[in-house]
Amino acid sequence: xSVLVYTESYNGKFKKNAFEVASYAHAVAQKMxxxxxxxxxxxxxxxxxxxxxxxxxxxxxxxxxxxxxxxxYANSIAQAAKAEGAKVIIISSSAxxxxxxxxxxxKLNAGYVPNVVAAPENxxxxxxxxxxxxxKGFAHTEITAETAIIGVSNNAFGIIEIKASASVESFAPTxxxxxxxxxxxxxxxxxxxxxxxxxDIVVSGGRGLxxxxxxxxxxxxxxxxxxxxxxxxxxxxxGWRPHSEHVGQTGKPVASNLYIAIGISGxxxxxxxxxxxxxxxxxxxxxxxxxxxAADYGIVGDAFEVVPKLIEKLKEFKAQNA
Amino acid sequence: xxxxxxxxxxxxxxxxxxxxxxDTKFDTTGVQFVINPNDEFGLTRAMWFKEKQGAxxxxxxxxxxxxxxxxxxxxxxxxxxxxxxxxxxTDGYFVARQLAEVVKNSGYDxxxxxxxxxxxxxxxxxxxxxSLLDMNFVNTCIGLEIVGNQATAIREIDGGKETLQxxxxxxxxxxxxxxxxxxxxxxxxxxxxxxxxxxxxVVEPVDAPSLTxxxxxxxxAPKGPVKxxxxxxxxxxxxxxxxxxxxx
Lengths: 322, 248
Prior knowledge:
The complex is a heterodimer.
Chain A: E1 3-6, E2 9-10, E3 13-14, H1 16-32, E4 36-41, E5 56-60, H2 70-84, E6 88-92, H3 95-108, E7 111-116, E8 122-123, E9 126-132, E10 137-143, E11 148-152, E12 167-170, E13 183-189, E14 201-205, H4 216-225, E15 228-231, H5 233-237, E16 258-262, H6 268-274, E17 279-284, H7 291-294, E18 297-300, H8 303-320
Parallel strand pairs in A: 1-4, 1-6, 4-5, 5-12, 6-11, 7-11, 14-15, 14-16, 16-17, 17-18
Antiparallel strand pairs in A: 2-3, 8-9, 9-10
Helix pairs in contact in A: 2-3, 4-8
Chain B: E1 2-6, E2 9-11, E3 19-20, E4 25-26, E5 33-35, H1 37-52, E6 56-62, H2 68-77, E7 81-85, H3 92-103, E8 110-114, H4 125-133, E9 136-147, E10 150-157, E11 160-167, E12 170-174, H5 189-197, E13 199-203, E14 212-218, E15 227-228, H6 235-244
Parallel strand pairs in B: 1-6, 1-8, 6-7, 7-13, 8-12, 9-12
Antiparallel strand pairs in B: 2-5, 3-4, 9-10, 10-11
Helix pairs in contact in B: 2-5, 3-4
């Protein structure tokens, strides 16, 4: 009985979270005395998942599945789980994986737990720690169903390198017209920019930036750090930045290694959205801003003076460490 | 068009979170409950369809009598009828199963649920429900137009958005973007008075299992005090992030 892991790819290339969920699946399989099998769709280099502990990869080579389709992907993964006798399925907690998670859970009558932040505490039955209450708390959740689906949070477990190769098999699920009844007609994806979901570092701006015309320094700081840009809710509500950059309880959750908040006071809803980040830095001219209580490092000062200096120092640091 | 909006009764977004009974239960003391924000965007979009294209809007929730003020608010906002499934929600599968039972044989063309509730954050109810009902499903929906039997939906993806087409009946996992924040409605006095006259049907739950159990809760470990860096010595922050936090 293997552990099955769904590894996401885009245009044939594995996403960063694919290596993390593969590493997670390997850890779970070891704990269960089993092995990890991956399923991927039209991946260019499926054998490379061996470097993260996967021993076998089922690569679905099907032109109809070149772009993500929740129902067809869930149906394929369910068929692979049955073929492999897998009772534990690992997915990520990306937008796509959360889309298919519920559909897959219903198909397999499985207990599904997303937003998991650590390897299972127990495997018989499975008990996992996950975020709840929009990162204001954690729940230790037991899966009582025979089949379990674990959705791993980005950056929570990390990538483990093993340096091995996996065997690769083609997998051809049986799919019908009904699996393609929801049709994708256009994908508008930012290319060449780090997304909040994939980012190790997020640079976020708030009302303290005074207007959208001042976002240049946020973008420059993000570029120096190889970071994604984000914003607080008022900023997206005012239309300074798109909704997709809104971080917080009703926006996107952030679980980066470093979160830099500039001109954001730190409303409870905003903090809930970024609590899962490991290191938080706040730059604000108000020493009473609530964010200082939640941050690891802080600078009380005018963002328009501090941020350009920070960019300059980071450039020097990069030059020295290049 | 007949629309069902699924409503979750959640702590207000400003709530501080505490647990009781040896950290096995959420502490509701002093907590105000509201319509789940993701559901509120969906409800407002449903009202838009009602007003612009003609639709009947029902709302449904799973919960005991204590959730009635929340569902009455949805009626005051303009929903035509409410359904309360008389059971304490235990997990996402249980809730989805109850809601699917309401949808079955009720002829809804569109079912809107929030992408997730802001309390337990399972995010699985709309997907499980759609799958149990064998209906089309679009998650993290930030735009929705319906012409005849065809829906065009926009969903948020990591790093962008995707436009999808599907025929009705359709299940949507909605969120901010379905309508603008400024379009959200506060019930007026007339709406509140009218809501009292509207039908609130209480139905008993069907027998359904829970597939997960939250055994225990905990709060994040308390943080140490913030380490302040002099604004005239920004280089120190770079050093701390490199040497101490090891994040750059």
